[in-house]
Amino acid sequence: MQLIKPDINLDFVGKRKFAALFSVVLLAVGFLSLIMHGGPNYGIDFSGGTLVQVKFDQMTTAGDIKSALAGLELGGVVVQRFGDEGNEFLIRAQNTSTELKSLSLAISNVLEKSYGEGQVEVRRAEMVGPQVGKDLREKGLMAILYALVGILIYVTWRFEFRFAVGAIVALAHDVFITLGVFSLFGKEIDLPIIAAFLAIIGYSLNDTIIVYDRIRENMGKHGKDGFAAVVNRSINETLSRTILTSGTTLLVVLALFSLGGGVIHNFAFALLVGILIGTYSSIFVASTILVFWDNYRSVKKAAT
User: Fold this and answer.
1) Which residue in 82, 109, 112, 278 has its CB near the most CB atoms, within 10 A?
2) How far apart (Å, rounded) are the C-alpha atoms in residues 69 and 82?
């Protein structure tokens, strides 16, 4: 199935400077947001603390819940609406010194005093110590770093070093932009989001390798046209496949995002952003970096 005519010749490479500017703006906005928020908004997995998920039989607000909990020594408390029904909330507390069962019971008792007996259901309670959170955070970051180093070695072995650099820059670009979007929307970074980042890396790399394969093939067939023309031809020839793959994957992730419920909402959101930005980067970042690299090498060679 082909959505795009095989002989189409859109000038993607000619727009590489605009694309580079667009990427820089996205990255700058993300970094600015991270600086303004004091870094990523780590979830309980990474920051430590206690998380209690409660459901009310009546409609209420996060402010009222926080006021009801004011008498408990929970440290800092954050209350967030959770799920689609509007009466379910996540209570996140810094306190990790009390037994989880006791703390959960204390929260339930205090809320029942305010809302009435049987009006509150504790659906989940989790506790993570600060040291465990720190260890998990470091291991999560190392997992992403190891994945990128492994990809650098693999792409260098399969293609050339410049191809590997292009792929790594594009993958880091995707992860940082997704992280920036999470910061802009105030969403938490927890273990499932690290898994989503690794999935984004895998998805984006697959797209990039398809284009790289076609570039290598066309370098032998159309090398005399110049490297930029070969890259542009390769992107056009794989465009139909890129749109079909990204489009169908996006439909699945959209269904997860819309219908999957609160538990996987952030995970699906990360994949949604990652697929969009990963498709863009395989066309406008990974491949065009090769053109920038080739132009730089030609200028340097001419100067010597």
Assistant:
1) 278
2) 18
Q: Residue 126 has which token pair? A: 């989790």
Question: Does the pTM of the predicted model rise above 0.85?
Answer: no
Given the structure tokens 């929970």, which residue do they identify?
74
In the predicted model, residues of the chain with pLDDT beneath 70 are 1-4, 6, 75-76, 83-85, 94-101, 130, 262-263
d(CA 214, CA 14): 19
Under a CB-based contact definition with an 8 Å cutoff, are residues 120 and 108 in contact?
Answer: yes
Please give the distance of CA 51 from its chain centroid, rounded to a whole number.
23
Interatomic CA distance for residues 43 and 110, integer angstroms: 24
Q: Which 3 state secondary structure label does DSSP give 67?
A: helix
Q: Which of 292, 59, 37 is nearest to 166 (CA)?
A: 292
Q: Are 33 and 183 in contact (CB under 8 A)?
A: yes
Q: Report which of 153, 172, 174, 173 is spatially closest to residue 164, judged by C-alpha positions.
A: 153
**Secondary structure of the chain: what % helix, strand, coil (to 5)?**
70, 10, 20
pLDDT at 84: 66
Question: Where are any strands of DSSP class E within the chain?
Answer: 49-56, 77-81, 88-93, 120-128
How far apart CA 83 and CA 244 sit, in angstroms, is 31
Pick the closest to residue 206 from 170, 252, 157 (CA basis): 170
Instruction: For residue 132, give the 3-state DSSP assignment.
Output: helix
Two tokens, residue 1 = 């199935």
